[in-house]
Amino acid sequence: MALKSTIFKAELNIADLDRGYYATHGLTVARHPSETDERMMLRVLAFALHADDALAFGRGISDEDEPALWRRNLLGEAELWIDLGQPDEKRIKKACTRAAEAVIYAYGGRAAEMWWQGIASQAARYEHLSVWRIDDDALAALGALAERGMNLHVTVQDGEITLADGERSVPLVLQRLK
């Protein structure tokens, strides 16, 4: 018998002063059995950083043809493609040819550094690709906020991000690789 996804509910209160975006989103996040709390919370963070009424979670791990998150227009065409981890050059090319904007949030410590060293020259040819890295300590702190029912407050100001759940606060600074 196959394991089923675990469902998490989150109320996400966003105050993004950098974008001038202020909204509350009710999210239902399905965590695949092979996904960690850290990766799932990175998806929530990516949602907060790109929040929009049309932004949606993709099937991600369970479907190679969809990203972790994406925003599609009324015709179903991808405008924004967000991937997590260390995608290969073929996946990056797919993201950049299918969407007007592609973003990667890399994680994985030393492995992420080595991945970037190996992929940076190929990634340089894609003008509308952004690559960010989150360090392991920040990712672990983010994962510690995971609960089946969450009420999260996200503040973004001058590139600094704070996620808080009322009891704990996690300050984050993402490293821009591209």
UniProtKB/TrEMBL annotation:
Transmembrane segments: none
SMART domains according to UniProt: YaeQ
CDD domains membership: YaeQ-like
Gene3D superfamilies per the UniProt record, alphabetical: Restriction endonuclease-like alpha-beta roll domain
A Pfam entry, by short name: YaeQ
InterPro entries: Restrct_endonuc-II-like (IPR011335), YaeQ (IPR009822), YaeQ_sf (IPR038590)
Domain of life: Bacteria
Record protein name field: YaeQ family protein
Organism per entry: Chitiniphilus purpureus
